Each structure stands twice: as C-alpha cells, then as structure tokens.
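Holo prediction — 2-acetamido-2-deoxy-beta-D-glucopyranose.
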Amino acid sequence: MILSRIWGFLLLCIITEAEIFDFDQHTNEACYVCSCSSDLTNVDCSHRGLTSLPDGISTKVTKLNISSNEISSFPNNLSHLFNLVSLDISGNHLNELPEDALRNLTALEILNFSKNSFESWLSLNPNEVLKPASSLKILDLSQNKFKTLANLGNQELLISPSLETLILDDCEINSIHGRSPLSGLISIRVLKLNNNPLLRIQNLISPTLKSLYVSNCQLSYISQNEFAYLPSLVYLKMSYNYRLQLPPTTESILSESLRYLDISYCNVFRPNLSGFPNLRKAIIKNNMIRFLISNEFVNNSKLEYLDLSYNNIGSLKGDTFRGLSMLRYLDLSWNEIAHIPEETFLEMPSLAQVKLARNYLNKVGHLKSTSLSILDMSSCEISVIGKDSFEGLPSLLDINLSHNLLSYIPDSISSNTLKYLNLNFNRISSINNVTFFMLPRLAGLSVIGNRFTSIWSRTFFNSNPYLDRLDLSDNMWRCDCSDDNMYDFYEFVTLEPNKKEESYNLICNSPINLIGQTWLEACYFIWNPGEKVRSADSLIWFIIIMIGGLSLCLLIVHLIKKSMNRRLAAIQAERERQIEEARDRLRQLRIRAEQEALCNTPDPRDLIAPPSYDEALSMPKLNTSCHSLNETGTGKTKRRRGRRKTKSSGDLLEETEISGDARVFDDIQTDETSNDNSKQRRRRNRRYGSHDIDELDQSPGARRRRMSEYDTLNDTVTVEVEAQVEQPLSPRNRRYSDENQPRESNF
Ligand SMILES: *[C@@H]1O[C@H](CO)[C@@H](O)[C@H](O)[C@H]1NC(C)=O
Ligand SMILES: *[C@@H]1O[C@H](CO)[C@@H](O)[C@H](O)[C@H]1NC(C)=O
Ligand SMILES: *[C@@H]1O[C@H](CO)[C@@H](O)[C@H](O)[C@H]1NC(C)=O
Ligand SMILES: *[C@@H]1O[C@H](CO)[C@@H](O)[C@H](O)[C@H]1NC(C)=O
Ligand SMILES: *[C@@H]1O[C@H](CO)[C@@H](O)[C@H](O)[C@H]1NC(C)=O
Ligand SMILES: *[C@@H]1O[C@H](CO)[C@@H](O)[C@H](O)[C@H]1NC(C)=O
Ligand SMILES: *[C@@H]1O[C@H](CO)[C@@H](O)[C@H](O)[C@H]1NC(C)=O
Ligand SMILES: *[C@@H]1O[C@H](CO)[C@@H](O)[C@H](O)[C@H]1NC(C)=O
C-alpha cells in the first residue's frame, strides 16, 4: 500500500518534471509561431504568412511544414536541422535553389517544392542540389512552370542516386526531349506527369522505372517503341487523354513487363492489348469501343481483370474472349450488347464475376460458364427468363436481375447452387408453390418494387430450407386479415428465430381503408381478438395493483418508523439507567473515599513505612467509628478495590460500545473525568495520608483544625483545602529538597 503510494508519488514527480522540462522547451520562439508536437519532432508552420524560417527551431525536428507561406528564397540555415526527414515547403514563392540548399540534410526523405515559382531547371541547380540529401526518396515539384522536361548537355539533369519518386504534375510540360532526363536518377521508380500538355511520352529511358502516370495529358499516340526503354514498367496510368488510342499491334510487343494498364476516358476504338502480353489488369472503360472481334484478347492469357464498361460495344462473338484463361472479372456494363452468344463465357475457365448491367439484353438466355458465380444483369430490359436459364451456370451463387421488365417467373426455375436472387423492380405479380421449388440453396430473395397483390404462402418455400432473407417491401399487398394464410405467412416472415424481413416493410395497399398501414397495424385486432378488452382490463388491474402496492409501502414505512422510535426510546432509557448506575457507583466511591480520607488510613500501596512507635504516639486519636477501616491494609481489599476499578471502567467501555452516540459519549467522558477525579482524589488522599506524617511533625495543631473543618465543608472545599495543604509539599523524591520551592499542581 505505502509502497504503491510512494511509487505513485515518484511517478507524479517524474511526470511533472517532464512537463516542466517540456514547457521549458516550448518556450522556443518557433513554437510561439508554429505548432510543435510535444517532443518537438514535428513542427507545423503552414499558413503563417512567414517570409523566412522562424528562429530557434529545435534541431530535433524531423518533420517541418512551412507550406503556404510567403517564402521567396530558400532558408539558408535549414542545415542546422540535420534530423529532418520530411520538409514541406510547398505553396511559397521559391524560384531558385542555391547549390548547397540541402547541405547536411542527410536524413531527408520527403521534399515538397510543389506550388512554387520555379520556371527553369537550371535555377534548381539540378546537378548538385540533391546530392547532399543522400536519403531523399520523394521529390514533389508539381505545380511549377518548368514547361519542358529536357536534358540538353546534361545541365538540366536532375541528379540524385537515391530518389525514387519524382512528381511533376501540373508543370506545363509539353515535351520531353534530349537524352533521357531520367538518366541522373538511377533509382527512380515512380514518375508522375499528370496534367501536363504532353503530346507524347518519348525519350524516357530508365531501367528502374516501374510506374508512370500520364493521366490528363494530351497524348494521342503511342509509338511502337515508346516503352521499349522502360523495361521495368509495370504500372501505366494514362486515363483522360481524350485523343489517345492504343496502337495497332502487328506482331510487335509494346511492353513485356506491363501488368497494369489504365486507359479509361480515352479514345480507344479497338482494345488492342496484344502488345502487353503480361497484363494482369486492364481498365478500358469510357472509351469508344463499338465491337469486339474474335480472339480479341488471345495474347493476354495472364489477364485477370478486364473492365470494358461504358463503351459502345454492340456485339461480341462467341470466341471474343478466347484465351483469357486467367480472367476472373469481366465488366461489360453500360454497353449496347443485345445478344450474348451462349458459349461466350465458356472460353474463360476462371471467370467468377461478370457485369452486364445496362445493356440491351432482352432475355436471360442460356449462358454457359462452369466457374461463374456472380452475374449482374440488372437494368437490361430483360423480359424473359427460362426455367433452364441458369442450368448452364453450375457455379452460380448470385444473380442480379433487378430493374428489368420481368413479369413472370417460370415454374421450377432451377439451379442447384443459387443463393441470392435479386428480382427487385420488375413487374412480377405472382409466384406459386413451385416457383422456387428447384432452388434448394436459395438463401436470399428480393422482390422489392414488384406487383404482388395476393399474399404469399409459407408453402412457396417448402423446399428452400436455407432461406433467411426475404425483401418484400414496396409491393401492393392486398390485406385480408381474416385469411388465416396471411397471419401464417406474416409469422413465417417476421417472427424470430427465423425472421426474414422487417415487419414495417410489409405495407397493405388494399382494401382502401388499410392503404399505407403495415400488416400488423391493419390486422392487429383481428389477429389478437379480445386484445382491446384485455388491454383495458389490464390497465385497471395495473392501477389497482399500483394503489395496493403504494399503500403497502406507506404502511411498511410507518411501521418501521414506529418500531425505530420505540427502539430509540428504549435505548435512551437504557442509557439513562446506565448513567444513573454509574453515578451511583461514583457516589459510593466518593463516600468511601471521603470515609477513607476521614479515617486517614494510609494506603498500603504507598510503600511507606508505618509510623514509628513515637510517631504513632504523637498522632491524634481516632474518635470516629469508621466501617471502611476494617477493610484497609488487607490484601483482599486491595484486590477487590482494583477489581472494582477495572469493573467500573469495563462498564464504561461497554457503554461506549453499546451506544456509539455522541451524546452518550459525552456523558461517558464526563463520567470518566469524574471517575478520574475520584481516582485522583483517592490517590491524593492516600498521599495526603502519608504526607500528613511529615506535616504532623511540623504542625500538629493545624491538622486537627482542618479535620474539624472537613465534616462541615463540601467536596470542592475539601479539594481546595487539600490543595492548600499540599502546596508546600514537594514530590516524594524531592521531599527533602528546598520545600519553599513552588511545585506543579497535581490537578
Ligand atoms: C538562422 O540563422 C540566424 C542567423 O544567421 C539565426 O539567428 C537563426 O536562429 C537561424 N535559424 C535556425 C532555424 O537555426
Ligand atoms: C503541411 O500543412 C498543410 C496545411 O496544413 C497540409 O495540407 C499538408 O499536408 C502538410 N504537409 C505535411 C507533409 O504534413
Ligand atoms: C551538420 O550536422 C552535424 C551533425 O550531423 C552538426 O554537428 C553540424 O553542426 C551541422 N552543420 C551545420 C552547418 O549545421
Ligand atoms: C506536396 O504539397 C502539396 C500541396 O501542399 C500536396 O498536395 C502534395 O500531396 C504534397 N506532396 C507530397 C508528396 O506529400
Ligand atoms: C489494332 O487496332 C487497329 C485499329 O486501331 C486495327 O486496325 C488492328 O487490326 C488491331 N490489331 C490487332 C492485332 O488487333
Ligand atoms: C499472339 O499469339 C499468337 C499465338 O497464340 C502468335 O502467333 C501471335 O504472334 C501473338 N501476337 C502478338 C502480337 O504477340
Ligand atoms: C443489383 O443491381 C442494381 C442495379 O444495377 C444495383 O443497384 C444493386 O446494388 C445490385 N445488387 C447487388 C446485390 O449487386
Ligand atoms: C401446390 O399447390 C397446389 C394447389 O394450389 C397443390 O395441388 C400442389 O400439390 C402444391 N404443390 C406443392 C409441391 O406443394
């Protein structure tokens, strides 16, 4: 306990000390202007209107943000901050860098110069400026006005052996020319050239470059060998080049290494991907493709993901997708496909998901695929579905046929695997007990927004043991509450533990008086006859019980109060009795003490020798009879007296224990003090008895006079007298020292 307290205290000390220490550090001037993290490693001076670096930035800083200020020349003593890892100086007015700008910044990894006023590469000192920053990984030069990315005579060559990412978005670069501008960046991995008015990407030579971003440029043309000098290129994003086409490839390969190609929002008419034989993911959405020929992707056997959505594809052939043996995801939505040859998907043995939404398909047809599990044919104007439409799809789990024109589901539509059937927003008006008879795995069925009127029956799903989700809302249910089937079906759909739909989604649409009510609202009193009466009854009962309970409570409280009062009175009486007893005892004790004093019996405990014979002769004679006298001097008395004393104190102790009441405690204290007094008095008397001997030697007459006084005077007077008597006496050990010396009273 104590140990933990001490620990806590120590901890507190340490913490407060740390805080004080921190506070001291916070008095750094820079932290008045900027916001500093508590350990001073992160200093944010952005948006402060600064024209230069604030003074006194701790050398501990690893992340310094001085973006969006008015700095127009590179802060020359940044080199103090040799721990800097990230420097954001974007949004300022820099237009040149001294050769040694980054000296000493060996830890720097991220340098952001975007949104500055650089216009020429030469003003950067590109050959030298990055060399000291030997850990630099990311350099952001976007939103400057370089106009070109050139390398003429090596003077504009950016040199950094460590740089991995160079960002040149929005730099008004319209051409890349000269010997490869990337040749000084021997570790370059990522080059971003988005939003530049680039017409061509050429002259890019880098054995290491993996990712190239040229979105939203003005590329229109990729030449046969454009990527030939980028042997590591894996990721190419060239979306939003509105004039760009894929080059016609005849035998020649554009990029052996490319795995990811995004050429969405361009001007592609023909998805000639055969130049990219290792492609894994191709996004060609929002282009101008009108048709797909046979064997269109035959050389893309590694392709796994193909997005051809938002084109104008009107037709495809049965063997269009031949050779796409790895393809898992095919998106053909938002096209103009009216007919899909049955065996089209059979060519893709790994195909798992196909999106055909928003096409002109008018029937589900008889698609075939051994692997397809998720099929989206929503919003397609489909009006016909055959009972065997899914039979060629032995892996189908989920089919989305929402937003079509289906008005009829054939009996016994069959699939051994189908789990989720989405028929939302069609025109279906009836099903029966055999409609889903052949869908043994059906788990979720949605028919939101159809035209069902007559309430279904539980028997419709007799052979769908896994059904746990039914979405039935937004239909035109005709509620006939007296129909047992309705209640039965309501229970089937909404009751736990097999609840399939929220009851508030089940809304009646007819008869006229029930429009807009939930099934339960509409039928509550018919399904629960007598409920109304019962509820009134139960209310009355409730009130009666409440009243009864309340009065019972009051009675109990009253009784408790009464008994407590009685008990309190009893305690009070007992207390008074005890006090009385104690007083009695005290009175007796006092009387006895008085008698003793009167009899002048020396207490045997005062180990004082009895008076000698001569002394005894000079003593006054006893003339009063004294009953306590026969007790004195015997060991028995001593014991008894001691016992009585302890007993009385024990009684008092008992009293305190019993009561615990402050007032009683007071009583006891007074009792105790009086007891003390009596004890003291007794002691005094004893002493008096012994001292008396000395005194008698001195003035025998005085003693006699006092004795006669004693009888008439009351207690206090006695005490006074005794005090007077004792005054001249010294304590026993000093009995023979200076007797006139005043001594402390025993009282
Ligand atoms: C920059 O240098 C000036 C003097 O040349 C000095 O007062 C200031 O503290 C320095 N700033 C930093 C951040 O070291
Ligand atoms: C610097 O501050 C700006 C504005 O507060 C913020 O947008 C930017 O992300 C910060 N830079 C870094 C590297 O945290
Ligand atoms: C350069 O960094 C070292 C520590 O790496 C430091 O001692 C020295 O003062 C710094 N030089 C300058 C000019 O800031
Ligand atoms: C550089 O700063 C700009 C503007 O503050 C920001 O948009 C960009 O993401 C930053 N670059 C890096 C690499 O953090
Ligand atoms: C590539 O597309 C062009 C039209 O842009 C077409 O003439 C050519 O036949 C296609 N090449 C291959 C191999 O598909
Ligand atoms: C595509 O593959 C076929 C053989 O599968 C081959 O003859 C043809 O040259 C390849 N085309 C390209 C452009 O690589
Ligand atoms: C089904 O298709 C509709 C319309 O395209 C879409 O809103 C919904 O999210 C799809 N449902 C599933 C489960 O994919
Ligand atoms: C379906 O209901 C009809 C009557 O409507 C009945 O004759 C038939 O046996 C039921 N079939 C099944 C499989 O429950």
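READOUT: The chain has ten helices and 24 strands.
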